[in-house]
Amino acid sequence: MEPRIVELEEKKLVGHALKMSLSNNRTFELWSGFMPLKKHITNSIGSDLYSLQVYDTFPDEVGFNPTTEFTKWAVTEVSGYGAYAKDFKTLDLHGGLYAVFIHKGPSSEFAKTMNFIFKEWIPSSKYELDRRPHFEILGEKYKNNQPDSEEEVWIPIKLK
After folding, report:
1. What is the Cα–Cα distance from 76 to 42, expressed in whole angstroms?
2. Burial class (CB in 10 A: 0-12, 13-18, 19+), 135
3. Count of alpha carbons within 13 Å of 158, Cβ hemisphere only?
4. Cβ distance 115 to 60 under 8 Å?
5. Can you give the pTM of this predicted structure?
6. How big is the CA angle at 89 (ends 88 and 94), to the nearest 5 degrees?
7. Spatial separation of the C-alpha atoms in residues 68 and 55, rounded to whole Å
8. pLDDT by residue (tens digit) across 23-52?
């Protein structure tokens, strides 16, 4: 599974955010709150959805464990910020270098993809993890929990 390396430009994102951990996974709650309301975001760019994680302690750091909290976002890209309902939050995703992997299969197998990225690919590559948000793009090939589902996994990197 070789990634493509992409220089991402800054994006403006709008959606919902919740604090959670791997052991207190609130992803279903997050997306259940966002999806019925996303139709009110009238200036979306495209139909892709972003599942984005903002870490204080990153997955490759000592101390990161299943109870380490992070903020997870359910968002869509917008052309600019406008007036949104109080339920929505905005997030500037700063540009930078990303390694983009394709996860194929249900979300129950996502840990295999992440283990490959963090335990095999990053250590043997010329890159190291950069301290910026990680995200997945849930595009037209994404089929929630289906065996033929595909999503892009964007990992922030920089040269070692």
Report:
1. 11
2. buried
3. 6
4. no
5. 0.93
6. 140
7. 9
8. 999 999 999 999 999 999 999 999 999 999
